Amino acid sequence: MSVDLEKILRPVESPMAPYEPKYMMLASGEPVVVRQVFRDEIPDLLKHVEPLIHVERDYYDVVAARVYAELIGYYTHRFQDQYVLALQVDGELAAIVNGRQVTPKLGLSLHTLALRRGLRIGAHGFAAKMEYHIDALGHDEVLIVAESPIGFRRWMIEYKLEKRFDIPHELGGVPSWALTRELFDRARASLVVGRRPVPPELLEKAMEKILPPSDPPTPPLDPLAATRALYDPTATALVAQRWEMEKGAQDA
Ligand SMILES: CC(C)(COP(=O)(O)OP(=O)(O)OC[C@H]1O[C@@H](n2cnc3c(N)ncnc32)[C@H](O)[C@@H]1OP(=O)(O)O)[C@@H](O)C(=O)NCCC(=O)NCCS
After folding, report:
1. Are residues 191 and 226 in the same domain?
2. Computed from CA positions of residues 217, 209, 25, 183, in that sequence, does the dihedral angle turn out positive or negative?
3. Mean pLDDT, residues 69-90 taken together
4. 82 C-alpha to ligand 1 centroid (Å)
5. What rounded mean pLDDT belongs to the chain?
6. Does the structure show a pLDDT above 60 at 19?
7. How far is the centre of ligand 1, averaged over its atoms, from the C-alpha of 150 (Å)?
8. CA separation for the pair 114, 120 (Å, rounded)
């Protein structure tokens, strides 16, 4: 008996409304377009996520490794009900956000990854995905976690998220937080920006090609910079590590 294994391995996708693109002006005066990325474009994202796996600073490494796996999972039909949005400035990739639908009333935020820093592009991306969950997909609640202190400030503090510590989040099983419809409505005026429709020339530029980020985060030249992310501002761990190495060399 022959079995079509692919039919078993491939999850059946739930119907999900498409994301309607929007745009907003950054503090730099540049417009940024937020739009959905579909399966065939995923390889164009992967090549810009991979280098970030080697950036320890601000937890880019763990977030990029997870995003990379999620994107391949989506591309190869090995992920249930995922969506991916890209933020582009003049075609250049500036941020990636993704998430998934758990049930028709419950959403789950996967990741937010800023490839251009200092302009709240990540924050705009996060707001766009919350808007997608609540307004377009009709979710009552979105489960969220933060992997980095910057993420915690941006999501838990700015949106005043509620604790759902009895629910292990799909990202590492850590306790969840939740954005409810009520919290989102309270944040609308201050945190959620953007206009629709996107002017045709802006949208065409974004849809034409995902261009490489011009100034992505890179690994620090000085390894001491990485200690910030490990709550080791005095670099004690690094110094201790060096002493161990020196001791080993003397013993040899
Ligand atoms: C979390 C994240 C999406 C936020 O993106 P963002 O809103 O565009 O914000 P930035 O990262 O540019 O800036 C955040 C802070 O870092 C600092 N910062 C700005 N530019 C920076 C730069 N070039 N390098 C380092 N830090 C910078 C700023 O002080 C800013 O402080 P603020 O909160 O007072 O504005 C982004 O930091 C990121 O992708 N981090 C790595 C992955 C991650 O942690 N994702 C979220 C998981 S919960």
Report:
1. no
2. negative
3. 98
4. 24
5. 93
6. yes
7. 6
8. 9
pTM: 0.90
Closest CA to 67 of 80, 81, 50: 50
Which CATH number is 101's domain given?
Answer: 3.40.630.30
Same domain, 142 and 238: no
Residue with tokens 């100034």: 215
Query: What is the span of the domain harbouring residue 242?
Result: 221-252
Rounded-to-integer distance, Cα 95 and Cα 78, Å: 23
Q: What is the count of structural domains for the chain?
A: 2
Q: How far apart are the CA of 91 and the centre of ligand 1, in A?
A: 21
Ligand 1 pocket test, pick from 129, 150, 158, 179 with the greatest ligand atom count within 8 Å of Cβ, gives: 150
Predicted pLDDT at 3: 67
Atom of ligand 1 nearest to the CA of 63: 42
Specify whether 140 is located in the same domain as 248: no
pLDDT tens, position by position, 114-132: 999 999 999 999 999 999 9
- Please name the helix (run of DSSP H) or strand (run of DSSP E) that holds residue 108, with its range, or none: strand 106-114
Q: Do residue 119 and residue 241 come from a single domain? A: no
Nearest to 92, CA basis, from 26, 191, 155, 20: 26
Ligand 1 proximal residues by C-beta, below 6 Å: 58-60, 63, 112-114, 117-118, 120-123, 146-148, 150-151, 153-154
Q: Ligand 1 center to residue 10 CA distance, Å?
A: 35
Residues 238 and 189 occupy one common structural domain: no
Residues 180 and 200 in one domain: yes
Confidence tier at 242 by pLDDT (50, 70, 90): confident
